[in-house]
Fold this sequence. Notes:
The structure holds two protein chains of two kinds.
Chain A (H helix, E strand, L loop, with lengths): L2 E6 L11 E7 L2 E8 L7 H5 L4 H9 L8 H13 L6 H29 L3 H22 L8 E2 L2 E2 L8 H23 L2 H7 L7 H7 L3 H5 L7 H4 L20 H24 L16 E9 L2 E9 L5 E7 L1 H5 L3 H4 L5 H10 L4 H4 L4 E2 L6 E2 L1 H18 L7
Antiparallel strand pairs in A: 1-2, 2-3, 4-5, 6-7, 7-8, 9-10
Chain B lengths: L4 H33 L9 H10 L11 H27 L8 H22 L3 H32 L4 H11 L6 H17 L11 H4 L9 H26 L8 H22 L6 H24 L3
Helix pairs in contact in B: 1-3, 1-9, 1-10, 2-9, 3-4, 3-9, 4-5, 5-7, 5-11, 7-9, 7-10, 7-11, 9-10
Amino acid sequence: MAKTIIPIGPYHPLQxxxxxFTLTVEGERVVAIDVNVGYNHRGIEKLSESKTFDQxxxxxxxxxxxxxxxxxxxxxxxxxxxxxxxxxxRAKFIRTIIAEGERIHSHLLWLGLAGHFLGYxxxxxxxxxxxxxxxxxxxxxxxxxxxxxxxxxxxVRRDIKSVDIPPVIKKIDxxxxxxxxxxxxxxxxPVLHARTKGIGVLSKEDAINFxxxxxxxxxxxxxxxxxxxxxxxxxxxxxxxxxxxxxxxxFDKAVIRILExxxxxxxxxxxxxxxxxxxxxxxxxxxxxxxxxxxIEAPRGETFHYVRSDGxxxxxxxxxxxxxxxxxxxxxxxxxxxxxxxxxIILAAIDPCYCCTERVAVRxxxxxxxxxxxxxxxxxxxxxxxxxEKNGCLKWI
Amino acid sequence: xxxxxxxxxxxxxxxxxxxxxxxxxxxxxxxxxxARVQYRVGPPLLQPLxxxxxxxxxxxxxxxxxxxxxxxMAPIIGFSGVVLVSTILWINNIDPTxxxxxxxxxxxxxxxxxxxxxxxxGFASRNPxxxxxxxxxxxxxxxxxxxxxxxxxxxxxxxxxxxxxxxVSYQATNGIFIGSLSGFLAWIVVILCVQAKLALVPFDMxxxxxxxxxGPLIEYSGSGLAVYRLMKNMMLFTLPFFVMILFMGGWKFExxxxxxxxxxxxxxxxxxxxxxxxxPRVRIDQAVKFFWGPMTIIAIIAVILAFLGK
Lengths: 397, 310
């Protein structure tokens, strides 16, 4: 059968961000996929080196609008790891509350988008309506719907007052019935089963080999969660369950996310009711030379930050690895052999966040070749040779 | 006596103008109900009309390498198909004696024309996504036509006539078909086929925005897209109207009956809207299996029951 190229991107209603997938199809069946990233590179790591540690916290918050807590969380942990120092208990609890609130709104956002991709716009609108309630809770606690600006190396910037706690808990409780209804609507819908069960299966073996993270791996039966594996914040003080399913298909990935929102609500309520009465900030003054890592469980998987300090007030090197970077290659295992109709929901099932993942990509003028690091060094050397040759110098190489 | 003016009036006033107005209103109802279900406000009454007028004023782009004549003719062919069908349906409701023998067959044929025009336009635009959408539309037609025609047979068996006028007048004296078991089963099948004919969720895969970005319509802009939009809006009137004639006693324009007719019509549109808002999109192979499997079986059962007089 003749092969056709179906482009998804760089601008496509499926994605909010510019990304380019080239699907090679036979009829409706996908036989090959090529992923191109690099449309949205912002040079955050480099920018971070010109900012102080306090400023960088706000900078990394803007890596992604949806995981706007996970990046500062990982960054501040990396900075604290340089000293090393433990933040006060109350700060840990507040950080956990904010991180879990973010998880709820992120999972609801994904659920809505998944419904939209399947043409189920009612779920889309309902999930996003529900998400507004969570955003309101976050606004009550932090003053912002998004980009909460709660984190700083050594603690948190804003305390949660005890008078605010009862109304917030009331508001969270009022969300649960609607969430239950949404859960039933999604988990029990036979047409949704037909569209998502057995689709885009990522086997346990593949999940381990590709190093899949977060809900993508947990749906395949790999119990991998930073919150359990190396507890941070208040996660070791709260009773909560890691949700793991075995099938690895799109349906399981949806189930994981829905059930995790309930766990998050549990964690938030526990933390709010058991806030320890300590300081919220260590008032760190100097960051000594050294290096540190911080990794936390973002809604999409493990977010990893590496920071090196030379004793000044700026990081000399700051490296960010967002979870989508690890989850993106699993497309190779999940999309091949599926139909185009399913390809879109499989692309969406890892809950990709491309702007977090963006790496710079250098192409030739025709756009048909991407240069890697060695190619770029070679190009640079060739240019030097050209200039030397032009001016009558001897060859270096 | 047939005058030249008479058919023209039916064609332009009823077939085009009234159908277009009703279609735009139906489209508004559909959008408004959808919006309310989804916690949104929804568009104002004139929005569907404004959309079309706006599109008519926009530039029409023809993609490079497209078959120009086919590309531009396709919307007009589909549009004229809908106008013709609506004319026949209106005549049958206003003055059944003016209709001709076998108009049901003509209507069945003409109802496929819009889908075929979309396939033509899709293939003519020379876009891989449009071709994909067109081929899906083709598979979908093959899927739903079998149960659709089987279900349409039920009223024919009851009335022993292939004239729509007879079907309407039979129901006026003997009660509407939806009240009988065979009629009810056939009605369910027809409603779902109408959903596919209108390319609405769960059967909107020919146009699936998040998959193939509008499919056959991807390259259309300006007046071509406006004609397609108007055609689709008019179909939202024509098809429920056809279902009403076949199973629900038609729409009589005298006294209280015009009001009950309007209610019936809004009811059918509401059912279509509810189906489209409570389901995700199915895959094309699942759709074809659905129509050839359960739908065809239900349609056959309905036909057998109709033979037994139930």
